[in-house]
Amino acid sequence: MPHKTDIKSLNYNELVQYVESINEKKFRAAQLYSWMHEKLAESYDEMTNISDKLKNTLKEDTLYTSLKIVKMQESRIDGTRKYLFELYDGNLIESVFMKYHHGNSVCISSQVGCKMGCRFCASTLNGCVRNLLPSEMLDQIYRISRDTNERVSNVVIMGSGEPMDNYDNVIKFIELLNSERGLNISQRNITVSTCGIVPKIKELADLKLQITLAISLHAPNDELRKTMMPIANKYSIAEIMDACRYYLDKTGRRISFEYSLVKGVNDTKECANELIELVKGLNCHINLIPVNPIKERDYEQSEKNSIKNFRDMLERKGINATVRREMGRDIDGACGQLRQNHIDENSAI
Ligand SMILES: C[S@@+](CC[C@H](N)C(=O)[O-])C[C@H]1O[C@@H](n2cnc3c(N)ncnc32)[C@H](O)[C@@H]1O
Ligand code: SF4
């Protein structure tokens, strides 16, 4: 955590207090807030109505986060863009920009790396380096918005990191993203995905936000889930399902489940039947994701036929299930892989 004031992570009221604490007039807060969160300025130098004297004070006193683009890959198939960004301290993160018919979506990272150790995930290969600040989560959207010149209408917190392991910063980020003085992205257009940290899911439910909760389930029973996700040793599926029902009760929002299909591991008929039993009667949607193989692990993607059969079995029982369209198939695949490949390439030199 930087010692300077992380100015872009302050909400409007906190910014007013900060501005007054350095003996400036309150209207400066409105100007600064607009430069940071509406005009998406990348530094104080862009702020034409702020005096040089105040800019110098702010440069001394605050951390003004902004991201450097290290690499950008664009899909020729669907326009998906993968960004590798450098943070102020040299750490690297990645974000993805996707174009859908309902609008543009950005998938952001919430941590540098992740400590959760899921078997199929490239984000966790080197553990968790640090939490991202609220400003650094905003910056991913701001930078992409400026780079593409496109409005972003949906945000998914599904990049590297476990958002419930960086809970306070994620909640602050959602508040800022949702603010009328900023990008004003509706809560309904924000999705937070978690591997299932039960107490935090309940804490989130109590806030009664209108965001979508996505649970990375990936297995219909604890035994199998433990072989894929170490967090399953801490929280059982029964506890996760209880937390989901609590979330639904408090917010009225349908739950999403993520289920990455791995050949011969979790794509069998037995698994489909167990999954049907598990979610029966719950207002939910299941996203089936053909697993994206990473070279460090031996998981393989399920056959097209098994994926279709799995989905059909769920649908026949009236369970909403879609196979996630693979965006940007022609660019560096799995989440966390662009960063991992870059780290590998540079440490090999
Ligand atoms: C990278 S995680 C980040 C959010 C949170 N930590 C979680 O696990 O939900 C987002 C989603 O990507 C999935 N994922 C990770 N690696 C994958 C891979 N190689 N192929 C397919 N999905 C993957 C995860 O299972 C999870 O559902
Ligand atoms: S899937 Fe999510 S929780 Fe698991 S290691 Fe990857 S980022 Fe972390």
Q: What small molecules does this complex bind?
A: S-adenosylmethionine, iron/sulfur cluster
The dominant shape is globular
Query: Span from first to last CA?
Result: 30 Å
Q: For the largest beta sheet, what order do the strands appear in spatially? A: 3-4-5-6-9-10-11-12-13-14
* Helix-strand makeup class: alpha/beta
Order of helices and strands: EHHHEEEEEEEHEHEHEHHEHEHEH
Mean pLDDT: 94
What report would you give on this structure?
The chain has helices at residues 12-21, 27-37, 52-61, 134-148, 167-178, 198-207, 222-228, 237-251, 269-279, 304-316, 337-348, and strands spanning 5-6, 62-63, 68-74, 81-86, 92-100, 103-107, 111-113, 128-131, 154-157, 190-194, 212-216, 255-261, 284-290, 320-323. The strands form three sheets. It has a ten-stranded mixed sheet. It has a two-stranded parallel ribbon with strand order 1-2. Strands 7-8 form a two-stranded antiparallel sheet. The protein is globular and about 70 Å long. Helix 4 crosses helix 5, helix 6 packs parallel to helix 8 (237-251) and helix 9 runs parallel beside helix 10 (304-316). The protein is built from eleven helices and 14 strands. The chain has 349 residues and is an alpha/beta fold. It binds S-adenosylmethionine and iron/sulfur cluster. Pfam families: Radical_SAM (PF04055), RlmN_N (PF21016). This is Probable dual-specificity RNA methyltransferase RlmN. [4Fe-4S] cluster binds at residues 114, 118, 121.
